[in-house]
Design goal:
Two copies of one chain form a homodimer. The first copy, chain A, is α+β, with helices and mostly antiparallel strands. Chain A contains 16 helices and 22 strands. Among the domains of chain A are: 167 residues, no CATH class; 99 residues, Sandwich (Maltose phosphorylase, domain 3), CATH 2.60.420; 118 residues, no CATH class. Chain A is globular and about 75 Å long.
């Protein structure tokens, strides 16, 4: 059993966006991304592999050995989508697809089209590389989502049969091994949560306990998790693993796991995270390098890793009830995560650099399609991060125009949030209990907010002493009670720790949770020579017709006169020209004319000049 | 014979400072540095080694194997001093000292107290390391200076005997080898110039031609000089070598040597020279590393190397007649060279960093005493760099209050310069030919001066078209003719080539030829966190009582509020405080309360912060 003091997320089925920020994104995901991803899965024969493995179609396996996972991830996204908006056609399509998966499942429950079609005798012989358990995990997540969204068991039963099979293969006295790409751990916990079958929880714990006895730091398998203190290796794998570990910690109360999670969280958030929330700077290992190594142009910062960062930080919040985890979740969500998908929903970044000379663009698909299929399953679950509950407390974590239904102190409460977040920090929360009900409302005060003002039913009140980053209000709530929270959103110049060599002498602009960038198209075609001295004033205004409606930042900055350094070692500083600049949200770059982009602006043109020579 | 188009320096015997900048330095050198250096040579038994080798005293060799050279260098300095100011006591002391050297010279002319006393059978067996030829070169330089200053042959005859011996030992068909530490090449040319003995010139050429057939780039012996393009290895050795090479090029017109000198000069001045004129960034090899590697705190920039830089650039000017060589000479002279000696004349820097945390101070002497004994011989020859002549042209290279006697177009001309240079760029030159004489006066317009105004006998004239960095005025000069040259001296912010990583985002202050620094004692004890944004105004004023009278620069700059970065990866920029600053000439630092010093000031406090963590 989970500890009674821990928190539970209010599920995606019970929260609905009614805003101009998230609602259009969920709609683009439903109407564009989802069909596009299914079409790609058809066109690339990812789905046909199931037909062939099931004997429904003649043919051979095609593609990469972990392609099954993409199909499962798109199904998971479709399930969330169905929960928010009934769609008989999609429902029927899923049922037909599940029939193909059913056919591909072997008599003993085993399910992996690559092994079944290519190396049927080699099952479970190459755990570090071949991703059978990773694919199984995505099947379980899809099955749980489909069951929760539709109540149907057709996919869930496949998952249960496969999970039972894995549970018979792996274990003490049987096969002892761990997956090269983690994922099954958190998925088994989900499967346990809908089935109540403790074997799945124990199997997840088995995969966590047996980790750390190889040399492979690439997949966090170098030392036992309870002894780990530094984040290493492949960033997505690390995130999936630690999300699963946090789940297990929640159910077991294992203090050594708690402590390891806390150490690793400090390492990544204090030394190895981009200001966008992106993680994993290096393309070499798709992952981590050394502390403070955060190059901008060559940042890898995979979209999947940002998604993993949200998954893990949500669980860390649920464990600890501290706003700092939601701060990281929000920073990632609004910047380095949604940058991964175009506003139209049909183009994806695999990597998310913080600077570009103009040659980095979103693509409709990738041979290794993990990012598109991660986006399509992530976007429709964003609503699950707004609220959480514990016995007598409602936790308000994210602010967005929305309606929700939650249960606190045993009573069902309807909640309405009205806000233009993330462009405005003004939030009105209206509470509608069925009967007057006493409980806490914990309002998260974001780390970027120095002081928020509060009104209760129109009366200004002294913000109650915050704890762990929350304002806490206890009272007997009656239907129609309102809370008005005002979080000022000045434009903030952010500096990086001086140990981050790439950002020395530079600042990034942030307003509310949104990190900004400069794109060439708004700034005479070139942005990499622009300096923004600290004393130049900036202002923000909403551009409703730009990029789906964004708050832009404008002001004056400096551009150096061209300097000829050839054959010169010293020369008088060049004169600078004052120029107007326009900054847009980082997530929205690369939607217009291709060109340069920067996030970290130098404060002197002398630093801008530095970029030119190679 | 030297080419007829080449130039000849007006010798130290014919130029006398009458200013407040150089005259006090020469006086301190005469009255303090010179006796202190002789005393050190006595106390450390450098002089006693000659007595022992000559059988005048019982004992053994003491000290380092190249200690003879220090005695010769102090004698050289004493000789220049005698020429400027008769001193019977010093004259007599020198004669007694020369008696000891005479005694130490062997029957065959060989002279080296280390080998005579320690390894008499090993002469010339360790040329790369043991510095016999280096010591011989310093003997020759001392002897030539003593002869020119006093007309006495007692030291010159010793030098001639030793040179003849070396000429019998080395040569084609005899011993073929080159010294590990160059020096003898330029010294043999000097000996040739006073004796007319061509064997000495040929021997110098031999040592140059035989260079480049070992693996030793440490002493520029890795490839033949005519094929060299990059400056490498020990900085002092390189300077002494190339000074000798320039001399040989002047006498031989060897185009391959000219071309090599030009390539190497570009390499050092465009890629490997500090703004102070200092060279050789690394303590490891007391020399050069890779292009643009110019760290400030750890700069080696040996005082001897700065002296060598002046020696070489003077010869490059004499070869080419271009002001750019004198620009480098002047930059070095007024900054990274005279920083090597205290104003009082009794303390020396061996290395001259461009930044300090407060732990670098001048010392009264060093075990390896090359720098003190180089300073004592260099300061009283500075007057030799003011003027040069070619057949019908007077070259005015440095500006300083002075009187001189030169011969141009066959006539003796008296010159009087009145100026407060380097604090003012206003120079009045009065010309007194014995009879009216037609010749060119070439006035050097320093590289730091954008436009100079000119008056002839009180009438403004359009500056004549400059050539090679000079204004040229041809006329029949009559006694009392005056030239008034006005070179404005604004405070200049200098940037380094962006490839110089150490100076990125930073500027140095320069006014006229003087590079400035900030010292803690003038700036509330700390200077390494001060930033000087480009738009802050600065002004200069003369402080007559400070540091012997210096122009200081004052203005407003920024200092950041203290920032706590522990456990933080990103945070809003700190606010800055505007503070007053005072900058003093770099050469004059470390004369007062010990403390921090910086030359390169960041333009944003974000860069200042960068220095703090390690």
């Amino acid at each position: 059993m989970k500890s009674s003091v821990s928190r539970t997320a209010v599920p995606f089925t019970d929260v609905k966006f009614i805003d101009n920020f998230w609602a259009p994104r969920l709609e683009a995901n439903r109407s564009v991304t989802l069909p596009a991803c299914f079409q790609q899965c058809e066109d690339t024969h990812r789905i046909r592999n199931f037909e062939v493995a099931g004997g429904l179609t003649e043919g051979a396996f095609e593609g990469i050995y972990f392609n099954d996972s993409d199909v499962y991830k798109v199904i998971e996204g479709a399930a969330y989508t169905l929960a928010l908006q009934p769609d008989p056609e999609l429902d029927a399509y899923l049922d037909k697809l599940i029939e193909k998966i059913t056919a591909a499942q072997q008599e003993d429950g085993y399910l992996n089209t690559y092994y079944t079609l290519v190396e049927p005798d080699k099952r479970w012989t190459d755990l570090p590389v071949r991703h059978e358990l990773y694919c199984a995990g995505h099947l379980f997540e899809a099955a749980v989502a489909h069951y929760r969204a539709t109540g149907k068991r057709n996919l869930l039963d496949i998952a249960i049969r496969f999970a039972d099979h894995i549970d018979q293969v792996f274990g003490e006295g049987r096969l002892v091994g761990v997956p090269g790409h983690e994922e099954i751990e958190l998925a088994l916990v989900k499967l346990y949560e809908v089935t109540g079958e403790e074997r799945y929880l124990n199997l997840a714990r088995f995969f966590i306990d047996k980790r750390g006895y190889s040399e492979r730091d690439y997949c966090q398998d170098h030392i036992p998790i309870r002894e780990q203190s530094e984040i290493v290796g492949h960033a997505v794998r690390a995130m999936y693993l630690y999300a699963g570990v946090a789940d297990i910690a929640a159910y077991t109360g294992d203090k050594a796991l708690f402590a390891a999670m806390d150490r690793i969280w400090e390492d990544v958030t204090q030394r190895k995270m981009y200001i966008t929330g992106g993680i994993g700077p290096s393309a070499h290992n798709e992952g981590f390098t050394v502390p403070y190594d955060l190059p901008n142009d060559s940042a890898y910062a995979e979209t999947c890793a940002a998604i993993g960062m949200v998954l893990w930080n949500q669980r860390m919040f649920l464990l600890h009830g501290e706003a700092k985890y939601v701060d990281v979740l929000e920073q990632t969500l609004y910047n380095g995560l949604i940058s991964g998908i175009s506003l139209s929903g049909d183009r994806f970044f695999y990597v998310n650099p913080l600077g570009s000379r103009g040659e980095h663009h979103r693509q409709p698909w990738y041979g290794c399609a993990c990012c598109p299929t991660n986006v399509v399953r992530f976007i429709p679950q964003v609503n699950e991060y707004l609220y959480a509950t514990s016995s007598d407390t409602l936790w308000v974590n994210l602010y967005a125009g929305s309606e929700a239904k939650v249960t606190v102190s045993g009573q069902e409460i309807k909640l309405v949030q009205e806000t233009d977040y993330p462009w405005s920090g003004s939030v009105k929360l209206t509470i509608h209990p069925v009967v007057p009900t006493s409980f806490n409302i914990n309002l998260r005060i974001p780390g970027w907010c120095d002081h928020a003002a509060l009104e209760l039913n129109g009366q200004g009140i002294e913000p109650p002493p915050g704890e762990n980053g929350y304002y806490q209000i206890w009272r007997e709530w009656r239907s129609g009670d309102t809370i008005q929270l005002d979080m000022p959103m000045p434009i903030r110049r952010i500096a990086a720790n001086p140990r981050v060599q790439a950002d020395v002498g530079r600042i990034a602009l942030q307003r509310g949770p949104i990190v900004y960038c400069l794109e060439g198209t708004d700034n005479s075609g070139a942005v990499r020579d622009i300096a923004l001295p600290r004393d130049r004033e900036l202002e923000a205004h909403l551009e409703s017709d730009l990029l789906g409606g964004v708050m832009v930042i404008t002001g004056k900055a400096l551009r150096p006169q061209p300097v000829e350094w050839s054959g010169k070692l010293y020369r008088p500083v060049s004169t600078d020209r004052e120029i107007p600049i326009t900054a847009i949200p980082y997530y929205a770059w690369d939607h217009r004319e291709a060109g340069e982009m920067v996030v970290w602006l130098p404060e002197t043109t002398a630093l801008a000049e530095q970029e030119t020579p190679e």
